[in-house]
């Protein structure tokens, strides 16, 4: 599209932006917390909204009350593009620490308020609106535009994107995931993830005789934790071709005021998430479980970290076992030169009137699954980053509108043969 065509389309969206904000507000009013995992209400609402816009939908129940919804706007070409988002949110937590009802969906002082506003119902509203807008305005895209909404990205990540891909319900030449991102910086790659539980086994005894009787699994676990955390000190051989992208991402990190985080993309991070051990204060602990979350940069793998951890634990002479769980992936990315990345970045720049560029993410998401199936993908969605997964979650109304504009323009550009 040329500039004049884009400007005309932008104006049409702006004329209908109240519909977008109302849609987002209504999504925020629906409780879709996970791990409860019941996406019935929010899926039914979206299904009805899309059908009213004249679109057909297909719903797949991958597990009890976990619904995937797909809707497709057929185009005039062979290319296909996916707009993807998850409908679940993390739990609200302690409601007394919220200054507003987390399911109010209120618009106040230029913000939409509620659990999931940034992660990621603001983005979900944008991609739903994008498909409905094109249908209602009778704009036929140059190729097929597919909306995919999944139920469990926040907890388990089993019955959403990977389930759809495995069962061949999804395929495309490119994809946008409406996950939260910086307004000018979509994420085109991410670190890997390796979560594991180490169980330390001790010998029980009477607490009044410790450390002369028994062997405390908790004490051994303290040593194990210290050794496992040294994984952060490992020097990683970053592939040379990725160094420019990492340097650009570190520039973004510094520009965002996150001083001290510039090492994150080149190091393995290691978080001690939970510790559970012992049966009572008067008993020498015979078992202690510790869960770790390691994020892996380019240049290392899950297997290498696993072997490192085993070597460190074996040297301690303790009895233990290791069990992997949760997210598991190696670092992955989509080239900034890929058409899906260029179409998004170019249209962010056009909408925002500022220079945009893609960066790496230190967390992980559904993007890795698309890349495993050879589908180029990047993430871009509205966010008030400091409120994600926290209390008083919110998102700027203007960012929700701008992202919807980017989704529409990028889709039409990308689907051109």
UniProtKB/TrEMBL annotation:
PROSITE patterns: ARGE_DAPE_CPG2_2
E.C. number: 3.5.1.18
Domain Peptidase M20 dimerisation: from-to ranges: 188-320
Protein name (Swiss-Prot/TrEMBL): Probable succinyl-diaminopimelate desuccinylase
Names of the cofactor(s): Zn(2+); Co(2+)
The UniProt record lists the keyword Methyltransferase: no
Family, per entry: Belongs to the peptidase M20A family.
Keyword field: Cobalt, Hydrolase, Metal-binding, Zinc
InterPro entries, alphabetized: ArgE/DapE (IPR010182), ArgE/DapE_CS (IPR001261), Bact_exopeptidase_dim_dom (IPR036264), Peptidase_M20 (IPR002933), Peptidase_M20_dimer (IPR011650), Peptidase_M20A (IPR050072)
Source species: Sporolactobacillus terrae
Annotated Pfam families: M20_dimer (PF07687), Peptidase_M20 (PF01546)
Pathway noted in the entry: Amino-acid biosynthesis; L-lysine biosynthesis via DAP pathway; LL-2,6-diaminopimelate from (S)-tetrahydrodipicolinate (succinylase route): step 3/3
Reactions accelerated catalytically: N-succinyl-(2S,6S)-2,6-diaminopimelate + H2O = (2S,6S)-2,6-diaminopimelate + succinate
